[in-house]
Amino acid sequence: VDEFPYPKGVTKSEQNGLMECILVLMHFMFLTLVGDDELDQQLIKVRTRRALDAQSSPHSQLRFWRAPVVGNASGFALHYDLRVGALSIKAQEQNLPQPNAFYGEVAAFVAQQVGMTLANQSILLQVNELLRSGISTERDIAAKLNMSTRTLRRRLDRDGQSFRALVDEVKNTQACELIQNAAPIAAIAEKLGYADERSFRRAFIRWNKQSPSQYRKEHCLS
Questions:
Q1: In Å, how far are 39, 61, 76 from 110, measured between CA atoms?
Q2: Is 78 in contact with 69 (CB distance < 8 Å)?
Q3: Running along the chain, 222 residues long, what does each successive block of 10 average in pLDDT?
Q4: Is the model's pTM score more than 0.85?
Q5: Which of 70, 162, 208, 215 is deepest in the core (most CB within 10 A)?
Q6: Beta-carbon contacts of residue 148 (< 8 Å; ≥ 6 apart)
Q7: Taking the alpha carbons of 67, 30, 78, 126 in that order, is the dihedral positive or negative?
Q8: Rounded distance between C-alpha atoms, residue 90 and residue 88, angstroms
Q9: How many CA atoms are closer than 13 Å to the CA of 4, on its beta-carbon side?
């Protein structure tokens, strides 16, 4: 866990939150492949490095779990009953979530599990999810959230954020993921909507204080 490629400047608490979200992502992937709620019932316990105290309850990634959560563990883990080994993969390729909609599917699943609604989720989370799903314009996102662009800007401003900054954040996350997956820089630039590779490189340097090639050297093993 200590060797996990966390983004620079991430605090220990943020590391815990990130790894807990990865556990949620893994569980969702297993459920999607098996297509059976029985897997949910056969989850015995969840382990996290986070110290479980009164401050833990607001974290949706912890409230998500129906199984007991063990805190102060040496690492992060999902413990299933051995019977899950007999479950077969039922998911059909054509029914799997599309890549640009996958994280939105996960978010909806988490919301369902913890009893959240779109109305009481953080506006930052909602915009982030919509950007990840492929909706890129401020007008379209405002419409999706049933509000005017002016209201959207006001609510983002109230949370100390701007739409442009959120777009950059999502693009940077996607860029880093694609670089780590060995995608060509030119292809990444095109996928993220940049006019050319040079424009993308400038943006990436602004976000990360290093070039895409430098980032690849540091975060890719091969």
A1: 16, 8, 18
A2: no
A3: 71 84 88 76 88 55 80 90 83 71 73 58 80 88 85 85 90 88 91 92 93 85 52
A4: no
A5: 215
A6: 142
A7: negative
A8: 6
A9: 14
